[in-house]
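Q: What would this chain look like folded?
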Amino acid sequence: MFDETDLFHRGLALQEKKDYDQAIGVFTEALRLNKKYTEAYYSRGNCYEANGRHEEAIKDYSAVLAYSPNEAVAFFNRGCARVKIEQYEQATDDFNRAIDADPAYAKAFYNRGYVRFRQRKFEEAIEDYTRAIEQDPNDVEAYVSRGLTRALSGDLDAALADYDKAIEIDPDHLKAHGNRGNVYEARGDLTLAIREYSEVIRIDPNDGKAYSNRALGQFKNGRYREAVEDYTQAIRLRPKNVKTLYGRGIAYVRCRETDKALADFNSALALDPRHLESLIARANALSGRGEPEAALKDLNEAITIDEASFQAWYSRGLIHGKMGADDAAIEDYSKALAINPNDPNCSCLRGVIYTRKGMLAEALDDYNKAIEINPQYANAYFNRGLVFRIMNNLEKAVADFTKVILLDPKYVKAYQNRAVVYQMLGQKDKARDDMAAARQLGAK
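A: My prediction, written as structure tokens:
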């Protein structure tokens, strides 16, 4: 005949073997014999928690606290269970009470920080992670979590310092290397970012996310072939990841391998027919391959999915413009600019259509806006110079073409058009010099 103590130890043995269902039954039998057996409540709660039965675990930890109201570990464990079911306020209260019972409870500070992080209370989360580190200076996870919180708060230097410390403690910490790579990428340090993602791959060659991250870094660095290779490895490891298929498709576009790009966009859309980026990318690839009607079909679908997609309206404007559907292009660009009025390319392209339609005042407004947004935008100055030339405002035309040449000394058409305007002004020597410069740059 077993007494409650015998049953308890039998339950612990089953728990050690991870036979949680059997252990729960044994602990329940022990509690039937002794309803105040706090150790049995506590252990059964741990088994419930291990089985994902969080609400039952909470009841058992609460039973422990009914008999032992200052049990820091019970508050902590109940708080952890409450986090799992997103009872964040109650979890925070449990961690507070665990800290009250044990002011040096590093894990309670850490977990309270995690809750505050999930609630986007970043300053408070950083404070808690700092308190956890003060109690346990070698807590790698606290450094990594504080680093992530600081990164999301915009303090990239402090985030890097945390990741550096985490890696000093544990040189093979995957998340620390990966997150440090993310910070380097955010700072534009692509070589260092790629190095970090390579470290993650060295530590875990089956980390598909690391290959995707390195692929994006390679892409941003202009190394499109290397990006394709990394995306291919990522797809091998995660064949149903839509974003990775889309990413490789974009890299193929940059490699001028349109058929392979389309195959990837098709695969991505087979997995998620509403993936907006893949629809727009496929449309652009189809347009580049001379299939505007198929491209428009994709963009119409993209706009149906998200009417607030700047890129969908912008891309449709491009295609309508190429097709000579000027009114439709203007409407599309106008829709795009209503969503993002500060895109200089869109303003400039609408200006081109207005120019083509002879709506010169409207064209000038668009070129002026593009230049206001980006004072280094050579094409906008060039197009405005063309309008001034048409309007016979020759001095302003010369000024704009001159500005283009200052920004891009190899801009052949700027020399040619300035030569024409100089000729109109009777400045033949300057016109000859500009034509000579254009020929030297390869103009025929």
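DSSP finds 26 helices and no strands in the chain.
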